[in-house]
Amino acid sequence: MPAPIAVENILRDVLDDVAAREAAVSFQDVKARSRSMAPPRDARAALLRNGCSVITELKRAVPFKGPIPYLDSPHSMANLAANLEDVGVHLMACQTEKRRFHGSLEDMAAVREATTVPMICRDLIVDPYQIHEARCYGADVVPLQVALLEQSRLESLLDRIESLGMVALLEVRNPEEVDRAIQAGGTVVGINAWSVTSDALHREAIADIVPGLPESVIRIAVGGVQSPKELLSYASLGADAIMVGESVLRAQSPSALARSLVATGQHPACPSRKV
């Protein structure tokens, strides 16, 4: 297993990149532009369908595993997103982080333009500038990694996301982080099976976490889905939606696997709950 990446290094890189972008476009300018955008798409409705909704995560590379070759051209992300929407995917998540995932905000804007479903900005969000920036490029949902944020900053960023009409997705990995997410006022929680700093996967996290969540909280299982079998397992443990990335992207036919996941999640036999 490759050596873990230090959290401090990840956060330093994020802040360095934000500072460079802010030097080019001021916070006041990006803030004003974000408030003039058309209203966000309805992510909550997409997450609260009967059965288990499917979110596909689009990224040009995977840390520790390298680039995804067929996604290296300018229009490849948008073309793939359009194909995935055609087979019924309910939301898209686009990696915008450059250093580890080779992503960009321009990728997210292109994916949004090519589709009609709600858009999740996949990045490490630690600064208010990023939230306004994400709205400018088409985000409807913005994630917050609970493990990486002090409580006051977590609550402040959540409030800013919601002030722009977007949904805050609070990502957690253990019951302690769940308590902090609920304290912050989170209503949509992503139970992430992947470590922040390594390629370690803990699919059992959802079983540890769901019992501590209020019934009203929307639950998204993030990571570890390779086939309809895992979708059904997560749904049986209380997931309202699953987010799947690499297994779809590296499948022989990404559209075929996505179609199978959507069909399984919408089948009457799929466990479901009402929120």
TrEMBL record:
Top-tier EC class: lyase
A Pfam family this chain is assigned to: IGPS
The keyword Lyase appears for this protein: yes
Indole-3-glycerol phosphate synthase domain mapped to chain residues: 8-260
BP term (GO), one: L-tryptophan biosynthetic process
Record carries keyword Lyase: yes
GO molecular function, one term: indole-3-glycerol-phosphate synthase activity
Pathway: Amino-acid biosynthesis; L-tryptophan biosynthesis; L-tryptophan from chorismate: step 4/5
Keywords carried by this UniProt record: Amino-acid biosynthesis, Aromatic amino acid biosynthesis, Decarboxylase, Lyase, Tryptophan biosynthesis
Catalysed reactions, semicolon-separated: 1-(2-carboxyphenylamino)-1-deoxy-D-ribulose 5-phosphate + H(+) = (1S,2R)-1-C-(indol-3-yl)glycerol 3-phosphate + CO2 + H2O
Cross-referenced CDD domains: IGPS (cd00331)
Name this polypeptide is given: indole-3-glycerol-phosphate synthase
Organism: Corynebacterium ammoniagenes (Brevibacterium ammoniagenes)
